[in-house]
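Q: What does the assembly look like in three dimensions?
Context provided by user:
Components: two
Sequences:
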Amino acid sequence: MIFENMGFYFREALLSFKRSTLMSMATILSITTILIIVGVFLLISTNSSLFLKNIESQLEIIVYLEDNISQAEINNLKSNIASIDGIKEVKFVSKEEAYQRLLKDLGEQKDILSAIEKNPLPSSLEIQVKDPKVIEQIANRITEFKKVEEVEYGREIAEKLLNFTYVFRRAGMLVLALLVFASILIISNIIKITVYARRNEIEIMSLSGATSWFIKWPFIIEGFLQGFISSLFSIIILYNFYIFAVDKVHQAIPFLPLVVDNMDLLPIGIAIVLLGSLVGILGSMFSVGKYINV
Amino acid sequence: MIRMFHVYKNYPNKIQALRDINIHIKKGEFVFLVGPTGAGKSTFLKLIYRGIVPTKGQVIVDGINIARLKSGYIPYLRRNIGIVFQDFKLLYNRTVYENVSFGLKAIGATNFEIRQQVNKVLNLVGLEHKRKIKPHLLSGGEQQKLCIARAIANEPLILLTDEPTGNLDPYTSWEIMKLLFHINIRGTTIIMASHDKLMIDKAKKRVVRLERGRIIEDTQRGTY
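A: Here is the predicted structure of the complete assembly.
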């Protein structure tokens, strides 16, 4: 029955678009606007999350080694550390390399070093961890290894940063939830108005003996189309706006990490399409239900 | 065709719209439902097409107890009932033809059946030459005829009309009446709520008088 009449339902939905072009356009415009607002927030939150991750990934453990360590011992230590859970990368920095880095960092002032005959810097291991939350735990374990002079990981900064990102993410999630909730209410109200405008039609169908699903389907399809088309519009507008904004930001602050990969933007697009279409479908389904069986 | 046993209907605002209604309307009868505004005429009609359910009592339509009817079966009850409203309830953004075909499509008729039936009923009511225009271009009488055409398009057993001549001049009213008689002669049971004294006296059909929710008079070949 459902599929038998699908052609009719689609025709009815499209006809209704045609019959009330102005109303449909106003509906699409309103839903598009709401979805753009949601989209802007999603873009901001995705980018801040990338930014935070970036900062977090810069947290590393530096293990200063004793001066009398042999190459074999270094290799041994390196592989021991690498075998700890949660280690992303272990990099050896020799005494010479450390000296060169210092020279570079000092730049013009490198003459100060000429007062020192011997290279005073220790060799070290630079360790990156997968999850910054366990950085302390890992640092403590490394302290126990032999030939380790000192372990450093910027404890206070790490803790503050992790606290901040935690609160920031939670707050972002809360705002997002509220925003999605508000947009669901607004979109379903817009749909409700379009259904209300056609309550006569629904009443007549209902009194003619049409089954409730027969009445609902064209509206569901129309609601879906309105939501879907709005989501496409908002994605097109958002995308162009975003590309433009990214370009401007990069001109001003070149090193700021921004999400530019289309694959990373895809989930936002999917979220917008789902939000638009689902609310369109459910909104019309429930609104029509109210006018059936008068 | 229609039986009511001790039917009461109370609305949420404590108004007793119908009180202890007992009636039997046979197949093929033509019944006028008369009484002042607020007497319960519209409520009476609504019970038959199950727009509402009785607060107490039984309403049997074509052997079906409408109070026990599950909501999924209501559409199938309504396919046997045509309804003509005083305020027309036409779709003004569709043509005359589409207004009639709309209801038929809604009950799953094939395109062939629809074309046949729509042509037949538009001929019957005399609107076949106006099939392509929109209802707002029709006169009041023509709009009422269109409502009747729509209501009888699927050949219902019962036709309910709520003051169909309420807004029309006497000549047009009589035309509508003749049309309804014609439909009645073909076997359709008709219940017509009306204030139209002239028509009712002229028609000499069964008259059921409602007052404050009760039937106070029920006479064959009655007058207003």
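Follow-up: The interface with chain A takes residues 49, 51, 71-72, 74-81, 83, 89, 91, 93, 102-108, 150, 154 of chain B (CB under 8 Å).
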